[in-house]
Amino acid sequence: MHLAGLGFDLRHGVETRRIVLHSGADRARPGVHNFYERTPPGRFRRIVRASRVDPAGFAFVDVGCGKGAVLILAAR
């Protein structure tokens, strides 16, 4: 069982740990992204810090949305 992110999921009542294949995903085509997975919370925080932007002055748009972990982090 993949335990990375379990604490995040339990705290927020969500399931973001599993990789999800798109319908019609073609595993025979390496390099073609037919799946989505969550952005690790630590990576998201580092990106926001490195941007040196005050998030309070902007709207956040998550183009991919995936499983919603980034939206939860951005709401904080």
Short note summarizing the structure:
The chain has 76 residues and is mainly α. It is 33% helix and 5% strand. The chain has a two-stranded antiparallel ribbon.
Features of the shown structure:
76 residues, two-stranded antiparallel ribbon, 2 strands
Shape: globular
What is the count of helical runs? 3
Rg (C-alpha, Å): 14 Å
**SSE string, helix = H, strand = E?**
HEEHH
Structure characterization notes:
The protein has helices at 6-12, 41-51, 69-75, and strands at 20-21, 35-36. It is mainly α and 76 residues long. It has a two-stranded antiparallel sheet. The radius of gyration is 14 Å and the shape is globular.
Topology of this structure?
Elements: H1 6-12, E1 20-21, E2 35-36, H2 41-51, H3 69-75
Antiparallel strand pairs: 1-2
